[in-house]
């Protein structure tokens, strides 16, 4: 399955990475997919969501919190 998503507002690369992750998780939840492999090129975002890095940027905090709320709804989530 292929999916395209356009950002509506200008944002940083890390905000765009979070937007992509959130969109993918929302789609997976709608499709009732329980096993998800996350491929990302932003080590910052992956490590923040995995809990390895702290979120120091206040602009990323809202993305991080929402992502964690989505991650909590999936039983099997893998970061690659």
From TrEMBL:
InterPro entries: RNaseH-like_sf, RNaseH_domain, RNaseH_sf
GO MF terms held by the record: nucleic acid binding; RNA-DNA hybrid ribonuclease activity
Domain RNase H type-1 positions: 1-80
Domain of life where this protein originates: Eukaryota
PROSITE patterns assigned: RNASE_H_1
Pfam family, any one: RVT_3
PANTHER family: RIBONUCLEASE H (PTHR48475), RNASE H TYPE-1 DOMAIN-CONTAINING PROTEIN (PTHR48475:SF1)
The name this protein goes by in its record: RNase H type-1 domain-containing protein
Originating organism: Dendrobium catenatum
Organism ancestry: Eukaryota, Viridiplantae, Streptophyta, Embryophyta, Tracheophyta
